Amino acid sequence: MSLVGKKAPIFSAPAVINGEEIVEGFSLDQYIGKKDVVFFFYPKDFTFVCPTEILAFQEKLGEFEKRGVAVVAASCDTEESHLAWLMTPKNQGGIEGVTYPVVADTAKTIAHNYGVLAGDWNYNEEGNLTFEGAPIAYRGTFLIDKEGTVRQETINDLPLGRNIDEMIRLVDALHHVEKYGEVCPANWEEGKEAMKATKDGVADYLSKN
């Protein structure tokens, strides 16, 4: 089920911050009342599509930060695996230079609670607990506001990389709605006209566009 409109699931887990330091008990609660958060999951460390996304978020990190948005990544790998990957040069398949937090969801509970785990536990005929599917996360992305409420989510299948510029557009749309009380129509971008959430407002917008 969608998390949109609901409080983001709470967690406390190890993470690598600043690309070099492992911390215990990392939580998104630290941003409540202070920053919006783009929280995204990726399948696995040391893979192929994942570094392109992780590095793309880093390249756009300044755009998120100037909008008061924290970027946080997570996968079901260990914090030690994260750190090793973060210390591997890009030309060797690594993600060296990434500075935003990368959470280690080794218990897979965070991915499960966010609805992005690419499989689930079940019991076989012998009564043994098994895992059906892939024990890794889909490419889930969640925009969480300062109150800790999920305002947008997208979940991509494992081979489908996401568009980082679209996340910036959605952040801009959220901020516009919060600031002006208007709603953002299809393909809205910062600087374009939005509209009032009334029949007259819609009619006025459509007549101009």
UniProtKB/TrEMBL annotation:
SUPFAM superfamilies found in the cross-reference section: Thioredoxin-like (SSF52833)
InterPro entries linked to this entry: AhpC/TSA, Peroxiredoxin, Peroxiredoxin_AhpC-typ, Peroxiredoxin_C, Thioredoxin-like_sf, Thioredoxin_domain
GO BP, one annotated term: cellular response to stress
Organism: Roseivirga echinicomitans
Gene Ontology CC entries for this record: cytosol
Keyword line: Cytoplasm, Disulfide bond, Oxidoreductase, Peroxidase, Redox-active center
Subcellular location: Cytoplasm
Biological role stated in the UniProt entry: Thiol-specific peroxidase that catalyzes the reduction of hydrogen peroxide and organic hydroperoxides to water and alcohols, respectively. Plays a role in cell protection against oxidative stress by detoxifying peroxides.
PROSITE patterns per UniProt: THIOREDOXIN_2
Similarity-based family: Belongs to the peroxiredoxin family. AhpC/Prx1 subfamily.
Superkingdom: Bacteria
Name of the protein in its database record: Thioredoxin peroxidase
Domain Thioredoxin, residue spans: 2-176
Entries under CDD domains matching the protein: PRX_Typ2cys (cd03015)
A GO molecular-function descriptor: thioredoxin peroxidase activity
Pfam families: 1-cysPrx_C, AhpC-TSA
Active-site residues, as the UniProt record annotates them: 50
